[in-house]
Design goal:
Layout lengths: L1 H25 L1 H7 L6 E2 L2 E2 L3 H19 L9 H26 L5 H29 L1
Helix pairs in contact: 1-3, 1-5, 3-4, 3-5, 4-5
Length: 138
């Protein structure tokens, strides 16, 4: 149980850091421009509902710990971990973005594509980081 909690916390912290840098530094203007008519944006800054955003990251972390890690051996190569994480990210972000694309009038196709790619990469990278912690510290 303690080891599982460590892994969930590792994945959670990794997601929070990566997405903070992505959404607030690297791709901030892209997301603000794409979501101008839909987003919770005030004075050029996103103002999300923090408890809901936090729960998203908890669910993403749980997804890695309960779906990616159990499907691989502790000593499996990191490329396999990356690919399995990327697939989970593709499923999660694909469902989110394609549902929005199909149901919302102003959900941009370019945003859906970029977000799915980012989500696949981020989930893959966090899966690798969490696997490294799993093999070295649990």
């Amino acid at each position: 149980m303690i080891d599982t909690l460590k892994l969930v916390c590792t994945a959670l912290l990794s997601f929070l850091i990566m997405d903070y840098v992505w959404l607030n530094v690297i791709a901030k203007n892209f997301y603000i421009n794409q979501l101008a008519s839909l987003g919770r944006i005030e004075n050029g800054q996103f103002r999300p509902i923090l408890w809901a955003a936090f729960l998203v990251y908890v669910l993403l972390a749980l997804g890695i710990v309960y779906f990616v890690l159990p499907s691989i051996a502790v000593d499996e190569n990191l490329l396999s971990v990356f690919m399995r994480g990327a697939f989970l990210g593709l499923v999660i972000y694909g469902v989110y973005d394609l549902t929005n694309l199909s149901t919302l009038k102003n959900w941009p196709l370019v945003l859906a594509g970029a977000d799915i790619l980012w989500g696949s990469f981020a989930t893959a990278a966090v899966s690798v980081l969490t696997q490294i912690v799993r093999t070295r510290f649990t």
